Amino acid sequence: SGSVCPVSRTRFPFPPLPSYHFALGTLPQQLPNSGPALPNYFIPLQPILPGTFTEDTPSPTPSPTHSPGSLLPTSFTPILTHTTYTDTVSHSLFLSYLDEVWPESSLRRSSSVIRSSLYDKIVLVLQGEAGAKGRERLWIKKSEFFLVEKEGRGSLLAVPAVRSRASSKRGPLEGDGGEKSASKRSSYKLVAKLEDFYYIISSYHNSNVGHHGIRKTYGLIQGEYSYLPRTAVAKYIELCNICRVHRT
């Protein structure tokens, strides 16, 4: 009894190994209990179960949406979102610049920048709250401020998109005009406060196709907001890491 090697014609004292019918998908015959134990390298580590591999079973192919050896799908296209590129400019560094150029103590009614403290005070005056002097109320009236209601955002400060001729000559905060008609209020710009400059500029500077330049970014902002100087936009883009790489 035993088996004979077909190459060396050497006889082994153990029975021949059972044949595995991969194409038919059948189980191999059970090894006999008699005879010496087989070495480990003769015993299959993973037995083939019925129907696992047949002639009609196609070989597994990689998913068409993923390339082999890659974690990203082949059709992956990076989209530059605001969330992705918010960190391209240091928030603290940009706020330090704003505080240096427009400090709280130096802001007056003739300034082109409005901080949140003045912004909230104007809103309270327009809502009829007390606490403002006569000169402040007169300045708010001449500046053509009014409130607009935005869903989920409450009352926001706005100015007419087209300012009066006297207002354009005297500056952004020194216009005449008195009470505005309904036609003026139908077209308006929101007042941007200094503490929101970073987020406003970021949302208009970043786009799905890349980063806009100073002229394009400032033009988009001017279509929606007022009291946001061009110098702040220029400084933001100067600090942008993505734009800095393109300039080098």
From TrEMBL:
Coiled-coil zones: none
Ranges where the Integrase zinc-binding domain occurs: 200-246
Lineage: Eukaryota, Metazoa, Porifera, Demospongiae, Heteroscleromorpha
Annotated segments matching region Disordered: 53-72
Protein source organism: Geodia barretti (Barrett's horny sponge)
Protein name: Integrase zinc-binding domain-containing protein
